[in-house]
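Attaching the record inline, Q. Sequence:
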Amino acid sequence: MRILLAEDNPMVVSAIKDYLKIHTVDAFSTAEKAITKFEHTHFDAAIVDINLLESSGLDVIDYMLSKCDKIIIVATSGYITPILKRDLHEKGIPLLEKPFLMSALGKELKL
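Structure, as predicted:
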């Protein structure tokens, strides 16, 4: 499985890559970099932090949904509001609150 990871915390990136070591994980710290890679690469799944440096993970999610309806997307955040929960729920995107168990991430990725 090829997975796009949009996450700006190096410790979280390392933990997720370690957990998903049998998969190919491409990590990006900004929405712009993640979107640029997504435009030219097939991904089976994406893990997207909502609060990225200089941008919002929601931009990444919205872009992905506009281009591909068959990708598994999991949102993550350390700061969750009721509005964020509602917006992601309406898009059918699961939201994991940081810190989360890697097993919860695996379940959402259908591993």
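The mean pLDDT is 96. The domain at 2-108 is CATH 3.40.50.2300 (Rossmann fold).

More tomorrow.
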